[in-house]
Write a structure and sequence with these properties.
Blueprint (H helix, E strand, L loop, with lengths): L1 E4 L6 H12 L6 E4 L21 H4 L2 H8 L3 E4 L2 H8 L9 H4 L5 H15 L12
Parallel strand pairs: 1-2, 2-3
Length: 130
């Protein structure tokens, strides 16, 4: 079975869907996600504010599939996403999928927090509130 979804942020919704499908005796379940893997928080109004809440920031594709109970997770490659918009990558904010943010302060905050997380720090809320 192929499931197409727009994105995976935390993984809760798709995990619930896969569980229901497994309960209905679905065979193989392969996810096709039409947005690249979200690996970083958003500082510009989308409620994705910490690395720890983002499944793509914590796990690789195989681990995500295992975590949500699917056989595979397949993301649209970044270059294909950009191509599909008809714009150049310089016209788009891609911070949440590249960890390179278009504004200096957001880029600084993200890189500092990512470094702290890699050193074992636990996030205590939104990056810009720490």
């Amino acid at each position: 079975m192929a499931i197409i979804d727009d994105s995976i942020v935390r993984g809760d919704t798709i995990k619930s869907t896969v569980k229901r499908l497994r309960g209905a005796n679905a065979g193989e379940i392969h996810l096709f996600i039409t947005y690249p893997k979200i690996i970083g928080p958003c500082f510009y109004g989308i409620d994705m504010s910490t690395y720890s809440e983002l499944i793509g920031a914590r796990l690789d594709d195989e681990e995500i599939a295992t975590e949500i109970g699917a056989d595979s997770v397949n993301y649209l490659p970044l270059n294909e996403y950009v191509k599909s918009t008809g714009m150049s990558k310089y016209q788009l904010c891609l911070g949440c999928v590249t960890n390179n943010y278009p504004t200096p302060k957001a880029d600084q905050l993200a890189k500092e927090m990512k470094k702290k997380i890699n050193q074992g720090l636990k996030e205590k809320g939104r990056i810009y509130e720490n």
